[in-house]
Amino acid sequence: MIILKTNNELKLMREANRIAAIILSEIEGKIKPGVSTYELDKWAEDRILSLNAKPGFKGYHSGSRIYPATLCTSINHEVVHGIPTKERLLREGDIIGVDVGVIYKGYYGDGAYTYAVGKVSPEVEDLMKTCKGALDVGIKQAKKGNRVTDISIAIDKYVRPRGYEIVRDLTGHGIGRDLHEEPQILNYNDGKKGQKLKVNMTLAIEPMITNGTYKVRTLNDNWTVVTDDGSLSAHYEHTVAITGNGPEILTRL
Q1: Cβ contacts of residue 42 below 8 Å, gap of 6+?
Q2: What CATH number is given for 7-245 in this structure?
Q3: pLDDT given at position 16
Q4: Where do the structural domains in the chain lie, given as residue ranges?
Q5: Positive/negative CA dihedral, 156, 229, 62, 94
Q6: What are the residues whose beta carbons fall under 8 Å from the beta carbon of 80, sequence distance 6 or more?
Q7: What per-residue confidence (pLDDT) applies to 2?
Q8: Are the C-beta atoms of 32 and 117 separated by less than 8 Å?
């Protein structure tokens, strides 16, 4: 069931997502060669708590699995859900997807960004640019009267002609009191007719693309999703509210 938010609920979600946006903005200056993903995670948890919110991912249950960290830090061929550790050090030329969830007064904020560690090649820059562009065109379709699938089709049409693949096993989602609500938002065109978008729906739109295969697998930690062929992956995400005047990006300062 799709849950339409009240105006008061939207106020709380704006604050939750503003805090997520603060983390994604401030962490960029901390992403350098030699830094561990644990250091980034510890900083993020402390910063979220300082803003009177709670980490949204830490302790999150998915079946019998419990996520152990504040951030998902996914490096290079890791698509999503990479677990921060003291042993995982960033290296010059890496790319890292940082996904952050925040809970503020019972409501979730959720956003992600892919960062370059030092200098990366033009090819890698293009992968990141294309994924960010896919997010932008998807958000433009998040408006009253459109369908969820209009978001999916826009992302698909943007990514594929540029020579990249779209991860199919992972999707965007509704968000609110729960991190994952209806509807599911595919990042590719499956040819089906999706639900209509209504005012006060809140959506987490998050394309994940690769410079190789669309196929992915999960590592033995039961969380980290990687590309099946070791190709690079980029991931960007905004939480968006459907309004009478078009999409409102909530994960924005």
Answers
A1: none
A2: 3.90.230.10
A3: 98
A4: 7-245
A5: negative
A6: 72, 74, 97, 99, 170, 208, 225, 235
A7: 95
A8: yes
